[in-house]
Amino acid sequence: MPYSGLNEFINVLEERGELARIKEFVDPVLEITEVADRISKAPGGGKALLFENTGTGFPLLINALGSEKRVSLALSRKNLSEIENEIESLFRLISSPQGNLREKLRLLPRLKEISSWMPKRIRGKGKCQEVVVKNPDLGMFPVLQCWPADGGRFLTLPCVHTIDPVTGSPNLGMYRMQVFSKDQTGMHWHKHKTGANHFEKYKKHGRKMPVSVSLGGDPVYSYAATAPMPENMDEYLLAGFLRKKQVRLVKCLTNDLFVPGDADIVIEGFVDPAEELAREGPFGDHTGFYSLADYYPRFHVTCITHRKDAVYPATIVGVPPMEDAYIGKATERIFLNPVRMAMIPELLDMDLPFAGVAHNLAVVKIKKSYAGQAVKVMNSLWGAGQMMFNKIMVVVDEKADIHNYRNLLKVIFSYLDPRSSLHFSIGPLDVLDHSSSKFAFGSKLGVDATLPFEEEIPAVGEELRPEKSFQDEIIKNIPFIESFYNLKNDLEIPVCIISLKKDEGFRKEKLVSQIENKGSFSFFKIIVIVDSGVDVKDLFSVVWLAGGNLEPRRDISVIDFQNGGSALLVDATIKTSASDNFQRDWPNLVTMNRKTIYAIDKKWGELKIGDYIPSPSKRFMPLVKGEGAVRRI
User: Fold this and answer.
1) What pLDDT is recorded for position 450?
2) Is residue 13, in this structure, part of any structural domain at all?
3) Which tens digit of pLDDT belongs to each residue from 284-306?
4) Domain shared by 15 and 67, yes or no
5) pLDDT average, residue stretch 406-422
6) Where residue 309 sits, what CATH number does that domain have?
7) How far are the Cα atoms of 28, 35, 598 from residue 604, in angstroms, in the given order?
8) C-beta of residue 611 within 8 angstroms of C-beta of residue 131
């Protein structure tokens, strides 16, 4: 069912036991984040939270899409598989040849249904314009400061409307907005995004750029704003398909853009390309690290309108898993069949693990029928829309259960060869990637973990592995090493995770030399090194840190052991100028400060949201150096 506003969605969440109301005052500066972080990392994503006392006239809804169940509810489905099946059926209907007149006539009712999903511009005002604020002040809303080193308060769930000045094509995107003053914000659109493309066109034509921002309404709008839609395809068409009802748009009051009439809040304004860019950030981002301050356009607010019963929606991002992980899971399911049916027919399934924060890690299952097919799929996906940001892609064949990670690991290590399974490429990376030597550009890694065809088997034949097991005591004699975890003992996979202290005397070359000389290490296919303070048995965190901290071609190398055999050394440590000659600023991990943690600990019982949950930030505080967004040695 489509929702006519956030309040209607809130009622459904409450009926399903998916909402917790918090009547106690919780400060939008840091405190709401700390509560939401604890809840969102509960098994299954916890509950949606409605903060009714925010110190403003507006309640705040957060973690509304923070579980697979709630995302499905927001998209009006019982589960995400329903959407997969609908999209496949729709694609087959449109693409299949219609041989005779009867078959063509049979198609007409479905085409009429599809046309009914198209967004429609209507006359008059919408519910979103019940209250008009002609002297706009963003301070009227409970805008969050999410993390201690953030540059200020940020709108975190804005649906940003722009229009191409040449083609007239509208776009809906989601770009964070730092509040600079009562009527000015930043507009953080990355260079690869459509909003930035529109901005450059307005700049070229010497014109001011109209921008309108909607908040709330049907929650499907927030999802559609994040979806990787093709250029010049209206995101409200996707929203119409998902809600099975057209989106009705009304004209803004101070510019010519159109926004959903049932939105909760609308912020109208413009961006002037002739104006000097503003310093925006830092911001605790979805990678789990701060994105550092940079320069972005300034958005000028000309008018604010809202419903009489408006709810302010927000989200927080940081160390995964959080609400954005479940939104990403919906994208994985919704766009799988279009990619498969339009460009990669051998694609069977895809999984974007939460630890991979959407773009760092992807697992792909294919139906393999010829040598080199896994590499072909890697290159095809790296050229497909936002998959260009993927850093590590693992390809397996059809017998693997890619959603069962224990099973998946066994399959990968059955076929992984340190010398022949790795395929490096180079290309664009996400702007938020902090590990690459160059901004938004670096290497990618494809891992072919499919059953090799005869042509793919290395000429040297099968690699020999020592019969004896790894001897734990040998590791105690290697300097720098603090702790280790032999995964063969628990998961039966040949991986060793080592935490080490990178002091002033540390050099990776020394460590590699000592490992090569210890014959027992040849028992492993992969050796992962992480920083001191990382729990080597917390595999989720190790995978997350590896995806964030490594630049594949630089940080993954092959070790050849003196007694035969080879292994991959994966350097998942934080890089420094002293130890690694890394020249860019390295961001700190996103953690809450002790003052806020203590404040929420103290008032937890008054919030009445269940048993006490300790702060997730405490696990990662040992990795933080300094109090700011930039890591200080």
Assistant:
1) 96
2) yes
3) 999 999 999 999 999 999 999 99
4) yes
5) 91
6) 2.30.110.10
7) 16, 9, 10
8) no
* Residue 166, Cβ density class (10 Å: 0-12 exposed, 13-18 middle, ≥19 buried): exposed
State whether 168 and 23 are in the same domain.
yes
End-to-end CA distance of the chain: 53
CATH of the domain at 439: 3.40.1670.10
Residue ranges of E strands in 510-601: 526-531, 556-560, 566-571
Specify whether 435 is located in the same domain as 476.
Answer: no
Domain of residue 573 covers: 472-580
Q: How many helices (H) and strands (E) does the chain have?
A: 17, 30
Selected residue with higher pLDDT from 633 and 192: 192
For the stretch 169-207, pLDDT in tens is 999 999 999 999 999 999 999 988 889 999 999 999 999
The pLDDT score that the predictor gives to residue 191 is: 86
353 assigned to some structural domain: yes
Does any domain span residue 93? no
Active-site annotation holder among 285, 397, 430, 448: 285
Instruction: Say yes or no: 267 and 176 in one domain.
Output: yes
pLDDT tens profile 327-343: 999 999 988 888 888 88
Residue type present at position 6: L
**Most distant pair of Cα atoms in the chain: their distance:** 80
Determine the pLDDT at residue 614: 97
For the residues of 34-70, what is the DSSP string, one character each? HHHHHHHTSGGG--EEEES-SSSSS-EEESTT-SHHH
Q: What is the pLDDT of residues 86-139, one digit of tens each?
A: 887 776 665 555 555 555 555 556 566 777 888 999 999 999 999 999 999 999
What is the number of domains present in the chain?
A: 3
User: Does the predicted model carry a pTM greater than 0.70?
Assistant: yes
Q: Which residues pair with 300 in a beta bridge?
A: 184, 270
Mean pLDDT, rounded, of the chain:
91
Confidence of residue 515 (pLDDT cuts 50, 70, 90): confident
Q: Which two tokens stand for residue 80?
A: 């995400």
Tracing tokens 């059953």 back to the chain, one arrives at 451
* Dihedral (Cα; 313, 319, 320, 324), 10-degree rounding: 30
- Listed residues 313, 335, 367: the one ending a domain: 313
Contact 246, 117 (CB under 8 A): yes
Residue 233: pLDDT band with limits 50, 70, 90: confident
> Cα 305–177–617 angle (5° rounding)?
120
Question: Per-residue b/e over 187-226, b at no fewer than 16 CB within 10 Å?
Answer: bbbbeebbbbebbebbbeeeeebbbbbbbbbbbbbbbbbb
Is 285 marked active-site?
A: yes
Nearest CA-CA partner of 27 in 486, 618, 623, 603: 603
Short-list 33, 19, 23, CA closest to 599: 33
What are the respective helix, strand and coil percentages of the chain, to the nearest 5?
35, 25, 45
Q: pLDDT tens, 143-177?
A: 999 999 999 999 999 999 999 999 999 999 999 99
Count CB atoms within 10 A of the CB of residue 75: 23
Distance CA 466, CA 51 (A): 59
Sheet holding 441-448, edge to edge: 347-351, 361-366, 392-397, 441-448, 422-428
Do 121 and 208 have their domain in common?
Answer: yes
